[in-house]
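User: Some background: our group keeps a shared notebook of sequences we're curious about, and every so often someone picks one and asks for a predicted structure to add to the entry. Today it's my turn. The entry only has the sequence so far, pasted here. Could you supply the structure so I can complete it?
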Amino acid sequence: MKKEINNCGLACPQPVLNTKKALDEIESGIVVSIVDNEAAKENVTRFAQNAGHDVSFEENDGKYIITIIKGEGGQEEVAVPVKEVEQTAASTIYLITTDSIGQGAPELGYTLMKSFFISIKAVEPIPKALILMNAGVKLACTGSKAVEDLQELEKKGTEIIACGTCLDYYKQKDKLEVGKVSNMFEIISKMGTGKVITIA
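Assistant: Of course. Here's the predicted structure to add to the notebook entry:
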């Protein structure tokens, strides 16, 4: 079986997500992922290699044609117990303390945060909880581009928790559109129930 996906013009992480979806839909065969920039080429190639597939690419008129072979003839995948992976992911809690990622240009930081939410929605199983503190509470409030992503995650079962003190400080309590208002005691208790990863 051979599938071809045109990812030209798509921003990170969409080319990787589209390629992953195509690979998940076949037992074995070839997936050709076409991208139009170096970053997407590197990301798709690295993803496919890390998944244990044979990967090659060629450049043609500014586009990269990435050929991924799954199954027969592919590299041997490293066996990881499914239950172990599921238990780890299902107990993951993200502590988000900012409304943008990193200390560089704010616009880049917002783009990276949006990319983070797009990617995290594609992870199975989804995170146990997202805890929003400090400027992170703004992500769940009116005007944030992340509100729809958070609502999707909440519908899937991720608990969204927003720090009440932080909402008060930023005068955002009446603008909260997703999740529940919480306090430090509850937040600390929740953090004790899973693996915590901080996004700052």
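Suggested note for the entry: Strands lie at 2-6, 29-35, 54-60, 63-70, 92-96, 129-132, 159-163, 180-182, 195-199. Helices lie at 14-24, 38-50, 82-90, 106-121, 147-156, 164-169, 184-191.
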